[in-house]
Amino acid sequence: QTVAMRIAAGEVVERPISVVKELMENSLDAGSSRISVSVIQGGRLSIVVEDDGCGIPREDLPLAVERHATSKISSIEDLEAIATLGYRGEALASVAAVSRLDIRSRTNQEDSGVWLRMEGGGPPKVDEQNCRIGTRVQVDDLFFNLPARRKFLKSARAELRRITKVVQEFSVAYPSVAFILSSDGKKIYETQGGRDRVDVLKSLWGDEPEILTSSGARGPYSVTLWWQRISKVSRVSVMAFVNGRRVEDGTIRAAISSGETHPGGNWAVWVETPPDEVDVNVHPAKTEVLFRHGGDLFAAVRDGATSMKGRSLP
Ligand code: ADP
Ligand code: MG
């Protein structure tokens, strides 16, 4: 394994949250209904993601940790549509190159599972192992072989804060899936699965004050907004999703704040649009996006926000 490979891996894997994200995306792709994430020291020491998804067939597991061996992309149209969440076919290989990796998996076609261990991109060891249906991926000692990179990790608390935020965002994006997050052996967040999005928002924001909702469409964008108006606060907290993916976007924020009434409180914004209206590939590991018709999106969000502001007046 060359230094170049490790550095390439560092492009995909920046910090513990990148690992958590990639593993959760794989679990979602596998059709899981329950995903549990456990970290020790904010993921600096250990990250475990366990799911009840379809599992990895025994003969496929060694391939799954090889770069580009099993990309879900079969054509360039796929790349544009991004039908599945994972699409670069290099997440596991990248994680394997910069950590001590342990994967146990079993499909519902097999009576026993398979167990793979790998250190710093070295040759994988594969054994048979009894385990339940689904996949458990454990990533220990991230960047143990890339000390310069390890120095850039933040404190356990700061890394945990990012992980918590992203697990919460995934739980809002996938209300039908149950998510559990544990830190240093203690459960710190949990959703039940099989619920509506607003139920997940309640578990995140609390029942009170009431959560208002509105939806509408403009041009190619259809938008649903949820607002928990907190009259005392001026802070505007926005969680936005485009076609199911969490995004950071200035247009949406600006549109929410553009009305006359103050928009303080918690906002969630769900945007659906044909895939070619949005470029999510600006950077594979980042959450910025480009909208082809940003003006329409602005108007759709502004109108929805304005209608709710009106309704919430005394
Ligand atoms: P990609 O997701 O782009 O295909 P990854 O490196 O993330 O690439 O994963 C490689 C392959 O390993 C996947 O294509 C999938 O076949 C398999 N895999 C990884 N994680 C899981 C999981 N949790 N459940 C089932 N299969 C998985
Ligand atoms: Mg993937």
- Order of neighbouring strands in the sheet with most strands: 5-4-3-6-2-1-7-8
Bound molecules: adenosine-5'-diphosphate, magnesium ion
Uncertain stretches of 5 or more adjacent residues: 73-87
What's the β-strand tally? 15
| Percent range of helical residues | 25-40%
CATH superfamily of the largest domain: Histidine kinase-like ATPase, C-terminal domain
Can you name the CATH architecture of the largest domain? Answer: 2-Layer Sandwich
Can you identify the CATH class of the largest domain?
Alpha Beta
Form type: elongated
- Computed over alpha carbons, the radius of gyration is 21 Å
The percent range for strand residues is 25-35%
**H/E series:** HHEEHHHEEEEHHEEHEEEEHEEEH
Q: In angstroms, what separates the terminal alpha carbons? A: 65 Å
How much is the average pLDDT?
88
Family: Belongs to the DNA mismatch repair MutL/HexB family.
Keywords: DNA damage, DNA repair
GO biological process, one term: mismatch repair
Protein name: DNA mismatch repair protein MutL
Q: How does this model look, in words?
A:
The protein has helices at 3-12, 16-29, 61-64, 76-81, 91-97, 147-150, 156-173, 197-205, 250-257, 294-311; strands spanning 34-40, 46-51, 100-106, 113-119, 125-129, 134-140, 178-183, 186-190, 211-218, 221-229, 236-242, 245-247, 265-272, 278-279, 290-291. The chain has 314 residues and is of the alpha+beta class. The strands form three sheets. An eight-stranded mixed β-sheet has the order 5-4-3-6-2-1-7-8, with helices on one face. The model is unreliable at 73-87 (pLDDT under 50). It has two domains: 3-190, Heat Shock Protein 90 (2-Layer Sandwich); 208-311, Ribosomal Protein S5, domain 2 (2-Layer Sandwich). A hairpin with a 2-residue loop joins strand 9 (211-218) and strand 10 (221-229). Helix content is 31%, strand content 28%. It has ten helices and 15 strands. The structure holds adenosine-5'-diphosphate (ADP) and magnesium ion. Adenosine-5'-diphosphate (ADP) binds at residues 22, 26-27, 30, 51, 53-56, 64, 70-72, 86-93, 135.
